[in-house]
């Protein structure tokens, strides 16, 4: 899930962000996102992964011993943030063995889950890990909406139960929602539900093609009018109208201080940019982090290296993703259609609020969308 949401602030300059900036400048590995498995007990309609049933055999996944070795390598490189995700993390029977091993190495742990498999006993073991947060996906304020997406009966009741079990044990939770056509009109109700469950509310507007190229998830993207409605309610005009991008500035932190590990030991720059770096069964993490030319190539993707985006009048209103551009259009340097539409919707909301003039330009490549 991207940082767009209730907490997104393009101008934020707190101490933590200063530390992040330092690690990016020095190409120090600070954050690892690890997809432990692609097995899952839900079949979410918008999922970008080609998931397997939770009970499926997955002999190619890293073994428990291999995972422990990877944890050791992450620790040796000084990684602080370690996120475990899936699929569904509890589809791995050795999940707690891995998480407890990582906690003993003093990582700051985040756990991504749908919560279905969290029982009182598992909630106790999660609490003993002292995770920074457990982030749980919710797709509707009503069972009907949520289960239309998850395609799993009783998933709403089981997921909301997980929040309560964790809250009772003092575990910080994040209520994560991908906004889409099916739930966009439940935005206020979703926030209220998160508050009732004692969780931080975070949302994302990004839906992507599947990693295997399938485009079925895109049919669930929010309609343009719903994007504008959302931005009318959530944008801080002072933040966006003051935002500027230098030509030599990267539009995201790709290739600077973070990486993605998939269940089979493959390394990628991030969840969206599946540009292969190498495999941990063949090379050490240190070698892959320090020697691969891909990091330098991606780090050079500054605004002035993006032929369309560098000339776009809306680039200061755009939260651009290189990986999404590659998925949608086959080119890391091309505009990502969904990012463009979000920027156009921000423009309209800010014009309606009087924060931008009525004649604020619409880029040539978005003229057709603005009329549609």
Please outline what is shown here.
The chain is an alpha/beta fold and 372 residues long.
Describe this structure in words.
- The protein has helices at residues 15-25, 64-76, 95-104, 120-129, 143-150, 155-168, 187-196, 224-234, 237-241, 285-291, 293-299, 322-329, 337-352, 367-371, and strands spanning 31-35, 39-40, 52-53, 81-85, 108-113, 133-137, 173-178, 200-204, 258-261, 266-268, 278-279.
- Residues 1-12 have low confidence and may be disordered.
- A hairpin with a 4-residue loop joins strand 9 (258-261) and strand 10.
- Helix 2 runs parallel beside helix 3 and helix 8 (224-234) packs across helix 13 (337-352).
- The chain contains 14 helices and eleven strands.
- The strands form two sheets. It has a nine-stranded mixed beta sheet, covered by helices on one side.
- 36% of the residues lie in helices and 12% in strands.
- By secondary structure, the protein is of the alpha/beta class.
Write the layout of secondary structure elements.
Layout: H1 15-25, E1 31-35, E2 39-40, E3 52-53, H2 64-76, E4 81-85, H3 95-104, E5 108-113, H4 120-129, E6 133-137, H5 143-150, H6 155-168, E7 173-178, H7 187-196, E8 200-204, H8 224-234, H9 237-241, E9 258-261, E10 266-268, E11 278-279, H10 285-291, H11 293-299, H12 322-329, H13 337-352, H14 367-371
Parallel strand pairs: 1-4, 1-9, 2-3, 4-5, 5-6, 6-7, 7-8
Antiparallel strand pairs: 9-10, 10-11
Helix pairs in contact: 2-3, 8-13
